[in-house]
Amino acid sequence: MKDIANLRTSLAELDDLLVTCMRCGMCQSVCPVFKDSMLEGDVARGKLALIDSLAKRMIDSPVEVKDRLEKCLLCGSCEANCPSGVKITDIFIKARAILTGYIGLSPMKKAIFRRTLVHPRLFSGLLSMGSKFQGIMTSQADPFLGTSCSKIMSPLIGDRHFMPLAKRPFRKDYSGMDTGKGTANIRVAFYPGCVVDKMLPQVGHAVIKVLEHHGCGIYLPKNQGCCGIPTLASGDEESFLKLLKHNLKPFSSGNYDVLVTPCATCTSTIKKLWPKMAAKISPEAEKKAERIANRTMDISEFLVKHFDVDLAAQAGKGTTKTVTWHDPCHLKKSIGVSEEPRAILKGLPGYEFVEMNEADTCCGNGGSFNLAHYDTSSRIGGRKRENILATGADVVTTGCPACMMQMTDMLSQGHDHVAVKHVIELYADAL
Ligand code: SF4
Ligand code: SF4
């Protein structure tokens, strides 16, 4: 542990951000974790009060303080509902980094982040190997959703139903792709993100099909790394900055017009966190990250803004199935994208769109939150499942692979006959 004087200095940097909180409690009504526990300590106001008195509390019980701060999905619902504009997510992320700097990273996270994730080739190689041997440790959970479960690993992963690793990662087929400007005279850089690459390659294939259909040139640089959010959410700034430096290289070059991703969390991280964090590397890195952030778009936002989503004329034609939509927090609350995917879904031939109750309520995944607080995560996810089932939809769509994993787990546990798809998969199928 570092000394307490350093801790006090670091916490003083948060004072300007904390002072804007009026303790009004408006964040309480929208917090999914508070709705589950009804504990003030779980809501943003309670956590901000905790941070306010952190230096003193840290001396008494540092691990308890860290645990309470980490009992948060970083969903941004509180920030979106805060009348004072408190930068709650920034504060939580900074506080976690300060705490991790003081307490240190757990040996498990050190091994995953600092020895594996920051080395993209090694990370990909290990997961490729894992995909070959996963059958030894896992068994099929639900054939309709294609999920697995694992009794042997249950002390580590609980009773989760999860999507297996892809036999062939998406980037294996497309890494290094560079097709110039295309007939639409637009060059699109593509950042699939880790989950699409390693677990949902069909989403990456759908993006390629859609971009090619619309005549876009595609630039998919080799050796892309994780966007870094799992490391930053755990307070590991060191690993985040390493990954950021790594990713700045391929995405600062390439002379592309737009960078698209099918992952709401990656999009939000690139747009909002890369520039802020790059400032810690150098002014040049900050400029590069800003240029990348300004050109980054969610795939459905890109489609609707740049092209006529040309399916509308056939909307509902020959309707045989119903489809609903879940708003990922990092898409709607973080970057304000919610109408675009709905516009795509409403124009799909063969589908009728049904709006889900509480469509923009968090699914409860929250990345590492799901690993550390699976019980709470599943109760929040269970409510999402009920809302999905109440629509009677055949397919639930979303725009974030993490939400897809969570909804798949919940629906698989209930052996519900509802398919979980990325919106781009249905759009690609309809072309
Ligand atoms: S809504 Fe904003 S100002 Fe009100 S208590 Fe929550 S963080 Fe503070
Ligand atoms: S980010 Fe989400 S889970 Fe965390 S305090 Fe805010 S509303 Fe609650």
UniProtKB/TrEMBL annotation:
Recorded superkingdom: Bacteria
Keywords: 4Fe-4S, Electron transport, Iron, Iron-sulfur, Metal-binding, Repeat, Transport
Cofactor note: Binds 2 [4Fe-4S] clusters.
MF GO annotations: 4 iron, 4 sulfur cluster binding; glycolate dehydrogenase activity; metal ion binding
Domain 4Fe-4S ferredoxin-type: 10-41, 61-92
Cofactor(s) listed: [4Fe-4S] cluster
Pfam families for this protein: CCG, Fer4_8
Reactions this protein catalyses: glycolate + A = glyoxylate + AH2; (R)-lactate + A = pyruvate + AH2
EC code: 1.1.99.14
Presence of keyword NADP: no
Function: Component of a complex that catalyzes the oxidation of glycolate to glyoxylate.
Protein name as it appears in the record: Glycolate oxidase iron-sulfur subunit
Organism: Desulfoluna spongiiphila
Classification of source organism: Bacteria, Pseudomonadati, Thermodesulfobacteriota, Desulfobacteria, Desulfobacterales
